[in-house]
Write a structure and sequence with these properties.
The protein is α+β, with helices and mostly antiparallel strands. About 20% of the residues lie in helices and about 40% in strands. The protein contains 5 helices and 10 strands, in the order βαββββαβααβββαβ. Strands 1, 2, 3, 4, 5, 6, 9 and 10 form an 8-stranded antiparallel sheet that branches. Strands 7-8 form a two-stranded antiparallel ribbon. The two termini are about 15 Å apart. The mean pLDDT is about 95.
Length: about 170
């Protein structure tokens, strides 16, 4: 990590994550400094599970980032200031199979203790995967949710990760 970040406890986070996810978005990133992929996400959450601070993320299997999250034990969640909105739009609409997202967006990958994140993030949450499973059509109690969000039945896989490290960018 660079000196641009300070490590804090997840219990010290001040973000409104309803707003940060729904309106600000985040990048889910996995891999290493040489080979990584990232995608924009606005679905997910944070809480306490199994007596640990956790995040939960959702990725459709056809997304290139899915392969990276599957192959790696850690993923990061990066949150950005509004000035990076166009980069997040790009990362959410273009595939890393077809584009070099780092080159196209100007984002700078940096190593975290166990993964990869971006220098421009205002907040980095590094997570170790604890559990993963596929959403199952038969388990929807309100089928209108499934019909609205999965018309082609391309259900997300979700991962629950223990929050291992939190880094906040130092003020400029």
């Amino acid at each position: 990590m660079t000196n641009n970040f300070t490590s804090i406890s997840p219990y010290k986070l001040k973000d409104n994550f309803f707003d940060a996810l729904d309106n600000g978005w985040m990048l889910i990133t996995a891999g290493n400094i040489d080979k990584l992929n990232t995608m924009t996400a606005s679905w997910g959450g944070f809480g306490i599970l199994w007596n640990k601070p956790v995040s939960f993320i959702f990725i459709r299997p056809q997304r290139y980032t899915f392969e990276f999250v599957e192959k790696n034990d850690y993923y990061t969640l990066c949150f950005f200031d509004e000035e990076w909105r166009s980069a997040l739009k790009f990362c959410g609409s273009k595939s890393g199979r077809d584009y070099d997202k780092v080159k196209e967006t100007g984002l700078t990958p940096i190593k975290t203790p166990n993964g990869i994140a971006f220098k421009q993030a205002r907040l980095i949450i590094e997570c170790k995967k604890l559990y993963a499973d596929n959403l199952n059509e038969n388990n929807f109690l309100d089928m209108s949710v499934a019909l609205k969000n999965y018309p082609t039945k391309d259900y997300h896989k979700f991962a629950i990760g223990e929050i291992m490290n939190v880094f906040v960018r130092n003020e400029k």
